Amino acid sequence: MKTALTIAGSDSCGGAGIQADIKTMTMNGVYAMSAITALTAQNTTGVTGIMEVTPEFLSMQLDAVFTDIRPDAVKTGMVSSDKLIRSIAAKLREYKAENIVVDPVMVATSGSRLIAEEAVETLKSELLPIAAVVTPNIPEAEILADMKISSQEDMVKAAEVIGSRYSCAVLCKGGHSLSDANDLLYNGGKATWFNGKRIDNPNTHGTGCTLSSAIASNLAKGFGLEESVERAKEYISGALAAMLDLGKGSGPMAHAFALSGRFAQEAE
Q1: What is the mean pLDDT of the chain?
Q2: Closest by CA position to 255, among listed 197, 214, 218, 220
Q3: How far apart are CA 39 and CA 150, in angstroms?
Q4: Is residue 227 predicted with pLDDT exceeding 80?
Q5: What is the rounded CA–CA span in Å between residue 14 and residue 23?
Q6: pLDDT at 197 over 90
Q7: Which residues, including other chains, have CB under 8 Å from residue 99's CB and lie 6 or more apart?
Q8: Order of strands across the sheet with 3-11?
Q9: Other C-beta atoms within 10 Å of 167: how many?
Q10: Pairing relationship of beta strands 133-134 and 183-187 according to DSSP bridges
Q11: Model pLDDT, residue 178
């Protein structure tokens, strides 16, 4: 069985972060493992607290995983400090990790900021150069490319800037009132659009975590980057289309929408 590791923060309401990643990886047919960067007190309405692990303990988690069950792909999510980012990058280099998907989480769906200002520069210098692909949304791509994005042409330009600056593939995600649900993959000088249909569902908590984890899962299984993105978008569309409605804010998706069998049955 192929394996995947998520390095991210815990979401106590289960819709994003480590919890969303593990659900997504499991539903996409790989064995999921985790290294937790921080505990968050959060729900669908916002983040009320963040408690980071120490860089030393994060390194111990990564050692424990890589020396026993080596991951075929790695996904990084919320990492809120530069010291933690440096620890992650050092360990991924030490173990020559492959198929690294970097979701540059900076702001939660609820609008809460999840990363310190100085950590953004460390993310750029330490993590992006070792990534197979980075998956920014529009606000994150604006920060990484140092430019405003207001059109599809801007998305292409920003992806080119990020890709050439950090030598990685870039999946610039539409949404945020731009380009509907269409995403742009820039890889090796080639720009490819992945068109998606806008699903009228306000519950989008954890979409970025879910998409990047699905991409990592498919890379782990041996699919190429373009096919991994296409399969991941199909999965997230299904999770949104299931129209799960939980919580008072932007709720979680139905990660297990395709789950069937007797273990999923409810009591009569």
Answers
A1: 92
A2: 214
A3: 34
A4: yes
A5: 9
A6: no
A7: 72, 73, 74, 132, 216, 219, 220
A8: 46-52, 31-43, 3-11, 73-76, 100-102, 133-134, 169-172, 183-187, 190-194
A9: 11
A10: unpaired
A11: 60
Q: In whole angstroms, what separates CA 262 from the centre of its chain?
A: 31
Q: What's the pLDDT band for 263 if we cut at 50, 70, 90?
A: confident
Phi and psi dihedrals of 231, rounded to 5? -65, -40
Q: Is 243 left (phi over 0), alpha (psi -120 to 50) or beta?
A: left
Question: Cα separation of 251 and 143, whole Å?
Answer: 26
Q: E-assigned strands of the chain?
A: 3-11, 31-43, 46-52, 73-76, 100-102, 133-134, 169-172, 183-187, 190-194
Position 267, amino acid: A
What is the phi-psi region of residue 8: left when phi exceeds 0, alpha when psi lies from -120 to 50, beta otherwise?
beta
Is the model's pLDDT at 38 over the cut of 90?
yes
Instruction: In whole angstroms, give the CA distance from residue 261 to residue 229.
Output: 27
Q: Are strands 3-11 and 31-43 parallel, antiparallel or unpaired?
A: parallel
Active site residues: 173, 204, 206-209
Task: Please name which of 159, 169, 141 lies closest in space to residue 226, comparing C-alpha atoms.
Answer: 169
Tokens of 10: 């815990």
Enumerate the β-bridge partners of residue 5.
33, 74
C-alpha to C-alpha distance for 201 and 203, rounded to whole angstroms: 5
Select from 109, 148, 108, 145 the least CA-distant residue to 128. 145
